[in-house]
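This section describes the prediction task in plain terms. A model, or a person checking by hand, is given the sequence of a single protein chain and must write out its three-dimensional structure as a string of tokens. No templates, partner chains or ligands are provided. The sample shown here is typical of the held-out split.
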Amino acid sequence: MFESFGIIDFIDIALASALLLYLYLTMKKSGAINVFLGIVFLLVVFTVLRISRMTLMKGIFDTIISQGVIILIILFQNEIRHFLSDVGSNRSLRFFKRFMHKPSAADKRKWLMPIIYACMSMSKSKTGALIVVQKSTSLSDFVNTGDMIDAKVNNRLLENIFFKNSPLHDGAVIISDGRILAAGCILPVSHDRNLPRYLGLRHRSALGITQESDAVAIVVSEETGNISCAYKGEIFLKLSSTELDHKVSELLNE
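The expected answer:
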């Protein structure tokens, strides 16, 4: 029975399993797990019908599957874009980028510390803030929703941007390579039902941008002054200054 089973078949099964696992984790993270389970159910039924003699049912499901692909592309275009972006930013595909300019740990430290200082200062005064640090995934679409700044990272500048009377304090600041690209940016909001209800729009926006990119998002709560950090759809709550420093440094170097 298994005498024709070879290495290609093993690779085929492994790749199919990895793809299904990735789709499952992506759907679960975005709150669409029930849709994923529904798709799996339809595929199982379709497979059973393919090996059976139910011609009419097989024809119906053939039509559903063929049209369903187009519908899924329309419904989950953001997830598909995120998947392709995730593949493109994978370290295994960035071999040649190693020969390009890569900021050293000391360079990153110079502009990371002003962010930490600003967050600690805003935490004490309970000034709400949302700071997004771009990594390999481009955030140009979100940068364009805000007001261009293009200035060197500075803790006083960050505090002024998020000052309660500032017209830009409600949006997000996006930082890349030690420069503040824009402020007042609009980010996607996560609909993750597992997120505690007491967390507000800033936290959901931080989670949302990290679900669509590999960026690191830092949130200062306006109600409590607590500092949180989000990365790849996971949020780390109530961080101290030391914990924030270590966590953000670790995530940026990942």
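For orientation: The two ends are 45 Å apart (CA to CA).
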